[in-house]
Amino acid sequence: MVVKKAILTGGGHATRLRPITTTINKHLIPLVGKPMIFHAIEKVIEVGVREIAINVNPGETELQKYVGDGGHWGITICYFEQIGGPQGIAHVVSCARDFVGADPFIFYLSDNIILGSLKAMAEKFTHGGYSACLAFAEVPDPERFGVPEFDEQGALRRVVEKPTHPVCNLAQTGIYFYDTHFFDAFSNIKKSSRGDYEISDINTWLLENGDKVGWEKVNGWWKDTGTPIDLIIANQLLLDQLVGSHFQNNGTRAEGARVEGKVSIGHGTRVGSHVIIQGPVIIGENCVLENCRIGPYATIGAGTEVYGAEIERSIVFENVNINCLLRIFDSIIGKNTTIISGHHVPQGGRKMLLGDNTFIEM
Question: How crowded is the C-beta side of 261, counted as CA atoms within 13 Å?
Fold first, then answer.
């Protein structure tokens, strides 16, 4: 049976991404020109999901406005809060019990970005008679994640959350397939020393109680976007993955402007004669670019104006005003930010992490 339901995360406070997340939900941070959570939605739709429930912070309204009811994708999306406050991601799933009903489901942490497809994992879960199917990826720092342990025959034995001494370099990613045995496990596990209901304990309980638990190694690149550099890398890799049809020139370009490689320019955007754009680059609608250099690996939000600057490997939100002779790289610049010229620009450029509504004179 095709899995037609998914639970996605849209809550949390993303303290490692402040000040960006002081004024915007992390899951709405744009990657290749669209909110991060859209990538998760599209991944689960690709394998047949038709109903999605998204967990949100208490009092959240912004995410619902951006994502809507699912009509944009021809599916149904609803929202729910985590009852009793943050108590771990396994608890998030437990709060969606009524949504799940008797159906299998995907649980997807929406701040996970993968380049590969979930189709192989979905096929394995659907046809293999599994109660759960987990995704693992090789990482340099497995102690930050749930780490699988295998027996002498190579069979999965348990998953240990954030072990001090990991037994391998595989990590549990934020992508899980479950049937309703999940809720049997949840009713039998206890909170960890961190005060959370750990998803690793759910998986270990299923394994130790005779449920069939499969796993797949993530096909292609995977990243949880927990830090600014993670977001910049994810943006870069997603740009590389986009095919030519995603890059269309719908703006106006003055004679003399140079546009090289894969570049998308939105409607109403004006590109001046002394502008160089080196793809891959995505530029939103109604932007103004004059005497500047953009790219490679830059995304520029709608309504942004850039005069004189060089911007590469960066994510610039909407309605930003940059008017200075400055090289900006490996940066995230929040919406409505203004950066104007001061007296001295250091050689070599600057890195920036600027929240919304920032004003800087350089």
Answer: 15
